Amino acid sequence: MPTDVRPHFRAGNCLYALGRHSEAKEEYLLALEAAEAGGSQSADILPQIHVNLGIAMEAEGMVLGACEHYREAAILCPSHARALKLLGSALFGVGEYRAAEKALEEAIFLKPDYADAHCDLGSALHAIGDDDRAVQEFQKAIDLKPGHVDALYNLGGLNMDAGRFVRAAEMYTRVLSIRPNHWRAQLNKAVALLGQGESEEAKKALKEAFKMTQRVEVYDAISHLKTMQKKKPKPPKGKDGKDDGQGEETFVVVEPSKFKRVGRKTTLRQDLANALDIRAFERTTKLGRCDVELLRKEMNETDVPISYSGTGNPEKSIRKAALEVILRRLLSFLKPDTFQGSVKAINERILSVLDASGSGRVDLGMFFAIIAPICSGPVDRRKRVVFDALLWRPASEGSRGQIRRSDALAYIKLLRAVYIPTHGASDMLEMHGESDPTMVSYTEFLEMFNDPDWGFGILSTLVKLEDSDHIRHGRHTCSICRYPIIGSRFKETKHSFSLCNRCYSEGKVPSAFKLEEYKFKEYGNESEALIDKCMCFNLHSKKLEADA
Predict the structure, then answer these.
(1) Rounded to an integer, what is the distance from CA 137 to the centroid of its chain?
(2) How many helices and strands (H and E) does the chain possess?
(3) Residue 472 in 3-state DSSP?
């Protein structure tokens, strides 16, 4: 006799209301199992079980898994507007904006007065750059529900992105009138006021935000604003002796060919820009805190059935929702909301490349090989895990510790497409032999991986950034952004101004120094600078190298 569905369903509802999301999920899974066993007798409640199970999974940060249950609920009950709205919101949460737009439009078609759906549709439209329609959707949400905090806040963000600072500040003020402790609105209001040139009002708003949250980044923003005000250049005078209101740019951006390096240890400007971008992704995903050996553990303990791709090649592929479960184990130290942000970044940057066809499935071995270089651990161990992940794939099984050259090249092409998209290798396989049947050992693979032009030689620059996260340079501040320099300091040898990692990578120099070329030397710490100062008589004999 089939198990009664409703006791499990109601128990799940009670547990969720108590904040016991994991237990609620287990009850919903039992209800789902009973409903599927009960056949048509439970058909009426089955969509709602899927919806509530999805909500419980979202509360744990498992948004890709939640999407599958919302989608199933919408299939079982096409008129379920809430299931479609939740699906759209979850898809937005993992960065799948086009799919989110479609689901939310369907929800609104079924329920035109659905304020939350209009708000989330506005967010999806803003994400894909359709700001005119986004404004309309936010406004519809506000018209339907004048105190809709999310719609007001998101409309403020859209106006901020568009440079409409006055309008943005108005939206954030309305948010604060409804929810006085909304510290993000208070912080963004400060930024909007700063955009209007209202520095004093911005400082007050920042202080209010700091009172609300006590976050160190808000305190740093206040300190930086004070520093900028102290060092702000005086505006030029008009003919009448008064300020003419025309601010002067304090920096210029110069082309890469004008940046020269003093010594080979100074990082190339473009390499640093790419490495900074990868480092930012590493921080966002928190993969930099994941021990690379955990990937090897997953490969040893995860049993993935072999399937066949469209090309007929065997692979260990899994659905994105199943991959999310593995990621949860790898990033078990994260809170649910932080984990959701990590999955979104991974989905947008990595899974979109690995699942270019939109099948919803990912080659797990290739995924492990892609993330291994940015996990924590010694560089040599990261590279070894990359190779082991490629060996773990069915195509390499039984190959006695070697992989096919074509697979190695395919991996490197994907790796560069993920991490260095501006320097993609669209022609790499054709140049090096896409169908090369030869096998390569680990040593030969390392030569390919370390190649600075066609491989992932940038890893050494990335590791340098990782190691220098907490290195400061005394009282030295960047001549452009005025922040204390953390990490490497890039000193222009002729005029002695210093740049931080970010400003050097962006090619910014003080507008007071407009030269034909700039000669930079990189200092990893102040000890290096002191030694160099003591040996300054050797400076002019150093070889100058132009950026490639």
Answers:
(1) 26
(2) 26, 15
(3) strand
User: Scanning the structure block, which residue is given the tokens 């505006």?
Assistant: 235
Contact (CB, 8 A) for 186 and 172 = yes
Q: How many CB atoms lie within 10 A of CB 509?
A: 24
Buried residues in 290-317 as b, exposed as e (16+ CB within 10 A) = bebebbbebbeebebeeeeeeeeeebbb
Give pLDDT, residue 177: 96
Domains in the chain (CATH in brackets) are: 5-231 (1.25.40.10), 238-267+470-548 (no CATH), 269-456 (no CATH)
pLDDT at 231: 52
Integer Cα distance of 144 and 486 in angstroms? 48
Report pLDDT for 124. Answer: 98
C-alpha span between 157 and 150 (Å, rounded): 10
What are the DSSP calls for 325-385, one per residue? HHHHHHTTTS-HHHHHHHHHHHIIIIIHHHTTT--SEEEHHHHHHHHGGGSBS-HHHHHHH
The one-letter amino acid at 271: D
Ranges of the chain whose pLDDT falls below 50: 1, 233-247, 424-432, 537, 539-544, 546-548
Residues whose CB is less than 8 angstroms from the CB of residue 120 and which lie 6 or more positions away in sequence, other chains included: 85, 88, 89, 92, 100, 104
Distance between CA atoms of 204 and 391, rounded to whole angstroms?
58
Single-letter residue type at 188: N
Helix (H, G, I), strand (E, B) or coil at 61: coil
β-pair type (518-523, 259-262): parallel
Which of 363, 371, 283, 284 has its CA nearest to residue 327?
371
Please give the distance of CA 245 from its chain centroid, rounded to a whole number.
Answer: 38
